[in-house]
Amino acid sequence: MKEKWPFVISMAVGAALLAASFLVKEEYYSTILFAMGAGMFAAEGFHLARLCWWQSPARKDAYEAKQQEAHIDAVDERKQMLRMRAGWLSNQIMFFVLLALDLVLALLKAPAWIILILFVLWIFQYIVGLVIYHRLEKRM
């Protein structure tokens, strides 16, 4: 039951967002709350059902084997290195995508505040990458 509580709590938050969407009078915010609540409730409900399905007594052996394989994957040094490499590559790709998007929007004469937001996001990504790198360097 301990594994199921996060899903139940998230479903309750989703239900609260759904209920709040009916109380909000402005249609724009009501729609946003409804979509967030419905999405959260449905996604967490699906994950809870999947967890209950795997934890049923008929699938106990398969579930334990799956858990053991996930644990081995989590501590395997090669897979850790692959995950770190994938994170680094996705960071580099997004770094250049944001920069290219700034250039394209500037060429399309987008409002300056949109270009500024993307540029600040680009700088933020760079600084966060440096901070994380230096923290990891000190820890290891």
Description:
With 140 residues, this protein is mainly alpha-helical. It is 87% helix and 0% strand. The protein has helices at residues 5-23, 27-54, 60-75, 77-107, 112-139. The radius of gyration is 22 Å and the shape is flat. The mean pLDDT is 87. The chain crosses the membrane at residues 7-24, 30-49, 88-107, 113-133. Keywords: Membrane, Transmembrane, Transmembrane helix.
- The N- to C-terminal Cα distance equals 36 Å
Count of DSSP-assigned helices: 5
Order of helices and strands: HHHHH
Q: Which oligomeric form is depicted?
A: single chain
Shape estimate: flat
Helix content: over 70%
Mean pLDDT, all residues: 87
Report the count of strand segments: 0
The biggest sheet, with number of strands, parallel, antiparallel or mixed sense and barrel status, is:
none
Strand content: under 5%
Low-pLDDT ranges: none
Short description:
This protein has five helices and no strands. It is mostly helical and 140 residues long.
Furnish the topology, listing elements before pairings:
Blueprint: H1 5-23, H2 27-54, H3 60-75, H4 77-107, H5 112-139
Helix pairs in contact: 1-2, 4-5
Features:
87% helix, 0% strand, 5 helices, mainly alpha, 140 residues, single chain, flat
